[in-house]
Amino acid sequence: MSALYATKRQERTESVHAVSSVCVSTPPVLILNMFYTGLGIARDMAGKGVRVIGLSADHQIYGNFTRCCEVRMAPNSQEEPEQLFDMLVRLSSEVDGAVIFPTRDADVLFLDRFRNELTHHYTLAIPPHECLMQAMNKHALAVAAQRAGVPVPKTMRISSSEDLHKLESEVGFPCVLKPVFAASWRGAESWKKVGARKAIRIDNLQQLEHEYELLSWVDREVLAQEWIPGASDQIVVLGGYVGREGNLTQYFTARKLVQSPNDFGTGCVVESEEIPEIVALSKRLCKSLRYEGMAEIEYKYDKATGKFKLIEINTRHWDWHRLGAASSINLSWTAYCDLTGQPIDRQTKPTSRAKWIAEDALFIYLLRALYRGKLNLGDLWRKLSGHRVYGVFAWSDPRPGVRYCFSEFLPNLAKAIFQSVRGGRLS
Length: 427
Prior knowledge:
The protein is α/β, with parallel strands linked by helices. It folds into three domains: 124 residues, Rossmann fold, CATH 3.40.50; 73 residues, ATP-grasp fold, A domain (Dna Ligase, domain 1, 2-Layer Sandwich), CATH 3.30.1490.20; 166 residues, D-amino Acid Aminotransferase, Chain A, domain 1 (2-Layer Sandwich), CATH 3.30.470. Helix content is 38%, strand content 21%. The protein has a seven-stranded mixed β-sheet with strand order 14-13-10-11-12-15-16. Strands 3-2-1-4-5 form a five-stranded parallel β-sheet. A four-stranded antiparallel β-sheet has the order 6-9-7-8, with helices on both faces. Helix 6 crosses helix 7. The radius of gyration is 22 Å and the shape is globular.
């Protein structure tokens, strides 16, 4: 770590300690990782009189430079779980009783793995174990959703090459291959072996056999689901916090407008809007699962049946959770209050229209569209116009945005221009 970075971190730490000294009896917050999601949690908690510490496994990420929390370097939950556990045990003498917010599936699985030991010192913002496993296992979730009367795509679990010939009759082509547990494809080596793909469209048996042979080196068990046609704006989401007995406490609904890559990518422009149909479905699903905690529940509209079909649940904060702020919904604060026994506000406000924009993902999307000659400026302007919330930039907390601009955006732009001049290809 550079001396300059250490000095800046010390300045932020002293500033945060000065604020937190007036509320030493309030349980602190620990955030695992400072990408979009962690940075958003820190901003949610700003001004609440709570000490917030971001535990970052990346020395260079923009979230390390926020003014909204102190940041400490920490081991990666996926690559060094035992080392992170040891650090948390040592840290408990300083922040005993803190609430830990995960920001990735690997963080969730890490907290669940060490749940018994960590709960002696911390409050873990994850669902109960049985519920968690049912929600994170995509096959088990599909079965539970069908039992609750929530529509799902046709689904089949593949455990060996012998299952491949059953797929056409049980699911059909085209279909989508996914990991049963998303985290199983996300390790550094696994991610390379699956071609950095979170899901794969399959159009015929020959392609299925080829892809399964590659995927089985990572995990022999994969999920096949019916392909639901439609653009990214047919993907809709309920984001909320679920209290005890599966009751939705606060929530908002949204629609993806742009995702990169188009079929199975990350949402880089997401718009909040009222979508009452998925509220009813989500309430039914959470009740059936006896779900508790943060939830991003994703659906895709199937024009053939006229139904929203469940795709997945994220059991933690997600990239664009701060979009709820446009509707005066602070899910981080709601979760914190519930987990620390403080009164919480029930949902009373309708979802207001606003857009969340991931600057870096949108930049890559635009470069690809320009390269392929598929950029519609009028359509893009329409999708970007209106009230906006950004993943990195915020007027009240500008340093992460400045850091991103000079350390990532401008160098990547220069690299893209150089590749274009040299005749390189944007993948």
